[in-house]
Specification:
mainly alpha; 82% helix; globular
């Protein structure tokens, strides 16, 4: 079929070309997803720092949703990739069906709980009555579209695992265009449309996500090589589901704890007022340009490793990591230069008050020094995930992220003040990258299965 041409061969040919071709649309997809938030921030920023703080604080709870999304997403991406490597069509269908069943159930449960508990959860941040009211309204609307928000990453993981990263990019771009059009219309009103302000930003996001979800469904119906024989209403194989949970749970816990720790950091930052909260939110969005770029290669590395591991081509698995490492190292160095030397003009795009610009400039420069090891950590996590071994990246992430709270509390009480919080985040990112990279290299050179796979495939052609 014509659609099969979108699937990039990962078990043969040039490793560099395969990784790059697969990663580019994933990176573009990540930028499109980031643009959802950035566009909201650009328009909401015109309403003032209070509105930015409301939307930014609400964003922690949609971010927390990634904790449960990760389980079926990894199940889809790794399951499809390894089954494709084995040329196991039944295994592909099984991975897709179970991941979709799981995400629908989890997203409905999470949305219901978040809607019911949003007031006490937001009260944790001491935002003040007006800002908390805006945040509560924003979250209530977002909960209505949680299924659409949560299902998109699963479809993306399915296509990426199959070696087709172009389709998710195209569909996500459709949602972005809708969001670009709807944001100013619903936030500020036009003609018969009322001025909804923060609520308008939420409705624009939900409608755009619904549109992208609908296009994914339409595309799935056109792709029998992936979705033929899918039985979404069939009783799940609970043994398979347990295996999916076992593989995805460590990364899920890491994501949940990372978000909770970030919430704790935000609570510490709130002592400096809503401007500091807005700076952290906007600054993290700017910084996300680099880690989303590296994240594209993480997904590509996961699919590449999964397919070659499934095909029992251990030498390509090993060589592929070093090719990817070279790519993300260049990304990290470029990001460091941009954040350190262009901090003020970058933050000035989104924030306009002199105090916010000064705080934001310091944030970007401090975070900038950690970009290279952060990129290495992200890529290495993808290599572990492709092998189905999610424990090491989770242990490193959880352990060092947990140190951010005491570190931030201690350093913020010194002469560094708010900058002490930023330095805590930056140093922990550096340590994560170094430790995880060393762990992966040790694993690849000491694990008996990987040594056997590499020995068995030594005679195969490995093109870098």
């Amino acid at each position: 079929m014509a659609n099969k041409s979108r699937m990039i061969p990962l078990t043969e040919g040039s490793i560099l070309a395969g990784l790059t071709k697969l990663a580019m649309p994933i990176i573009a997809t990540s930028f499109v997803q980031m643009a959802y938030s950035l566009i909201d921030m650009v328009w909401v920023g015109r309403l003032g720092s209070g509105a930015v703080a409301a939307v930014g604080t609400s964003g922690f709870f949609t971010w927390l949703a990634n904790a449960f999304i990760i389980i079926p997403r990894i199940g889809a991406e790794v399951g499809v990739a390894q089954a494709m490597g084995r040329q196991d069509r039944e295994g592909v269908a099984k991975a897709i069906g179970h991941s979709l069943q799981l995400i629908v159930a989890l997203s409905l449960i999470y949305a219901a709980g978040l809607f019911a508990l949003r007031e006490p959860l937001l009260g944790f941040y001491r935002l003040g009555e007006e800002i908390q009211g805006m945040a509560s309204t924003y979250l209530a609307i977002i909960c209505l579209g949680m299924v659409f928000f949560a299902t998109k990453p699963i479809f993306t993981g399915i296509f990426n695992g199959a070696g087709d990263s172009t389709t998710p990019f195209r569909i996500t771009a459709v949602g972005l265009v809708a969001n670009i059009i709807l944001d100013p219309l619903l936030i500020f009103g036009l003609g018969p449309l009322p001025r909804l302000e923060v609520a308008g930003a939420a409705w624009a996001t939900v409608i755009a996500q619904l549109l992208a979800f609908s296009v994914f469904i339409w595309e799935a119906r056109r792709r029998p090589e992936l979705f033929a024989g899918l039985k979404l209403w069939a009783r799940p194989d609970w043994g398979y589901m347990r295996g999916m949970f076992k593989m995805g749970l460590p990364m899920s816990l890491q994501s949940a704890l990372f978000t909770l720790i970030s919430m704790g950091i935000a609570r510490i930052i709130s002592a400096w007022g809503p401007v500091a909260i807005a700076v952290q939110r906007v600054g993290s969005q700017i910084e996300s340009i680099s880690w989303m770029t590296a994240g594209g290669f993480q997904s590509a590395m996961s699919a590449f490793t999964g397919q070659n591991y499934g095909a029992r081509r251990g030498q390509r698995v090993y060589r592929g990591y070093f090719v990817g490492l070279g790519i993300v190292s260049a990304i990290g160095l470029v990001a460091t230069g941009a954040l350190v030397f262009a901090a003020r003009p970058l933050i000035s795009i989104f924030l306009h008050e002199p105090e916010a610009i000064a705080l934001g400039t310091a944030y970007l420069r401090i975070i900038g020094v950690s970009q290279l090891p952060q990129a290495v950590e992200i890529l290495t996590a993808g290599a572990f995930i492709g092998l189905g071994k999610t424990g090491p990246p989770s242990l490193v992430g959880i352990g060092l992220n947990a140190l951010r709270i005491p570190g931030a509390l201690l350093l913020s009480q010194t002469a560094l003040g708010l900058d002490g919080v930023w330095w805590t985040i930056s140093v922990s990112s550096i340590l994560k990258g170094v430790i995880l990279c060393l762990w992966y290299l040790y694993f690849m050179n000491s694990d008996s299965e990987m040594q056997s796979l590499r020995a068995d495939s030594t005679g195969e052609e490995v093109i870098a």
